[in-house]
Amino acid sequence: MPLYEHIFLARQDVSAQQVEDLAKTYSELLEANGGSVKKTEFWGLKSLSYRIRKNRKAHYTLLNIEAPPAAIAEMERQMRISEDVLRFMTLRVDALEEGPSAMMQKRDERSDRGDRGDRGGADRGDRRPRRF
Fold this sequence. Notes:
Shape: elongated
Strand order of the largest sheet: 2-3-1-4
Strand content: 35-45%
Order of helices and strands: EHEEHEH
Number of strands: 4
Largest sheet: 4 strands, antiparallel
Distance between the termini: 71 Å
Radius of gyration: 21 Å
């Protein structure tokens, strides 16, 4: 069966629990049509580059899917009908990523920024003194 990466954006005014319920609903729809969801990642509420249907932010969700094309078409049809889904994109891939996606790895790196090391703030002996 073909492999897909699917990302959808949900409105900013729905709760995180409702976004998880949406992902679960679409996962069940895929399973009913002969597919399966291998991984689900919630990337959180992020700012959009431009307004989409009067929304400045959206909840991002990634689904790694193994399903027949007909199941993907049905899921996309349901997403077009839903008022909570602003945008979605499905890409066919050769292999699914193992472990966390690049977005989740970026989030982990941000939490490790506490120790920035020695910046050499006070010792500037290698420079000439400033003249005003």
